[in-house]
Write a structure and sequence with these properties.
Number of domains: 2
Structural class: alpha/beta
Strand order of the largest sheet: 4-5-6-10-11-12-13-14
Bound molecules: zinc ion
Shape: globular
Distance between the termini: 37 Å
CATH topology of the largest domain: TIM Barrel
CATH architecture of the largest domain: Alpha-Beta Barrel
Length: 381
């Protein structure tokens, strides 16, 4: 039986573990390694589908937790599924909702059967389980469906992390048994920062034949070097012929380091969230548009970027819009930041084909000397 989502490994970089591949989905074929754009509530904040297409977005993420609370999975299904609802005809990956419900702290209660939680909107009670997550993701019509997992907050102790891993495996089996939708399920490897637990859990999860495997439980507050050590360790345990997805990561330097560890897929709120804070990613490094020195600067945000914002507007104008709190600034800065992340991955893929990946890796690490790890949030994108 062929899976709705399948992976084709095209080339392996001789100098690192980086891979060049293609991912086939019910809504088209995309090129890897890739960055996927976060659209939590059925929209990439500030950007319309035309904007996303213009910057060559490949995959958009939707969030099960947010969409099940509002407007509801069944309603989206009645309206033709998430692709039609948000007018995005490319591939969609949906988060399982696990990360969000486990982030709710004392608003939730966990049992083997399900997580009972209170909505962050109005305090109303809801139930999330492997079966509910699969139902909502099927209702949304997602192409890449994430298994419902238990994500423990670091620093958690060994037995707590181990219990979460074991439950995640049992829940994966329930996800696979109950899913009836058009997409394919990816399993998630947990295990915190403990190599033994990571190895044991990777063995359990990869024993299940799935369309892809994700590295979960990272970018949750640990240090950058720990994150990359565990990412590389875990990626090496995943099957060669399946895509590998590092969830919720990260900054430009995180992406190229992840690629060199053999990761194929990434997502992060950083480009859109930072755009709204006036922090821009450029080939030369970070730039704060608020800075007084840009008040009279007629040049583009990033001379190396061909996005609409950089082709059309000056730094001085963008700074003016930012300080005047004009709505347009969110769209223009988001276009550029997302375009930067997508272009970085295009350069990575081109370099992998040309045998020059090390150059892009070094150039990116020079522009982005490793700092804080990217951290995901419950409702902020
Ligand atoms: Zn640009």
């Amino acid at each position: 039986m062929s899976s709705p989502v399948s992976f084709e490994l095209l080339a392996q970089d001789p100098a690192s573990r980086a891979r060049r591949g293609r991912l086939h989905t019910p809504h088209g074929t995309v090129q890897t390694p890739m960055f996927m754009v976060v659209g939590t509530q059925g929209t990439v904040k500030g950007l319309a589908p035309d904007d996303l297409r213009a910057i060559r977005t490949q995959v958009v993420l939707g969030n099960t937790y947010h969409l099940m609370l509002r407007p509801g999975g069944a309603r989206v299904r009645e309206l033709g599924g998430l692709h039609r609802f948000m007018a995005w005809d490319g591939p969609i990956l949906t988060d399982s909702g696990g990360f969000q419900v486990f982030s709710l702290g004392d608003l939730r209660e966990i049992t083997e059967q399900a997580v009972i939680f209170r909505s962050h909107h109005d305090g109303s009670r809801h139930l999330m389980s492997p079966e509910v997550s699969m139902q909502v993701q099927a209702d949304l019509g997602s192409d890449i469906v994430m298994a419902f997992d238990e994500c423990v907050r670091l620093p958690a102790t060994g037995p707590e992390v181990q219990a979460a891993c074991e439950r995640t495996t049992r829940w994966l089996d329930r996800c696979v048994a109950s899913y009836r939708g058009p997409g394919s399920i990816f399993g998630i490897v947990q295990g915190g920062l403990d190599r033994e637990l990571r190895a044991a859990h990777a063995a359990q999860i990869t024993a299940r034949p799935l369309a892809g495997y994700a590295i979960g439980g990272l970018s949750v507050g640990e240090g950058k070097d720990d994150m990359h050590d565990i990412c590389a360790f875990t990626a090496a345990l995943l099957p060669h012929d399946r895509p590998r997805y590092l969830m919720g990561v990260g900054t430009p330097d995180d992406l190229v380091r992840g690629v060199s560890a053999g990761v194929d897929m990434f997502d992060c709120v950083m480009p859109t969230r930072n755009a709204r804070n006036g922090t821009l990613f450029t080939r030369a490094g970070r730039l704060s548009i608020k800075n007084a020195r840009y008040a009279t600067d007629p040049g583009p945000l990033d001379p190396a970027c061909a996005c609409y914002t950089c082709r059309t507007f000056s730094r001085a104008y963008l700074r003016h819009l930012y300080h005047a709190e004009e709505l347009l600034v969110h769209r223009l800065l988001s276009i550029h930041n997302v375009a930067y992340f997508l272009d970085l991955m295009t350069r990575v893929r081109d370099a992998l084909e040309a045998g020059t990946f090390t150059d892009v890796l070094q150039e990116t690490l020079t522009a982005y000397p490793p700092r804080e790890a990217g951290v995901r949030g419950v409702s902020s994108v």
